[in-house]
Amino acid sequence: MAKMDDATRKRVRAGRLMLAGKTPAEAAKMVGVARQTAYTWKARLEEGGIDALRVMATGRPAQLDAAQLEGLRAALLQSPLIHGFRTELWTLKRVRVL
Asked: What is the pTM of this model?
């Protein structure tokens, strides 16, 4: 079985605690997440079991495809000056523009 990251480990641990009879609030406190997060996980657990918590996508979906992400990565490894910026500092605003 593949190694789980910390977030996945927390979801699975909380899921097991809830299957063992803990409330979402109790499980949230034990794994160190917000209560509402545990209620979201509980809904997923009820729909698809522990496996649903293992493969749960988190965060906002990417707006760039793989080729665009690779292009961005390559550009960020270059100097901002090459891309028309006045200083050597990459900022979030500049990355958005790029």
From this structure: 0.59
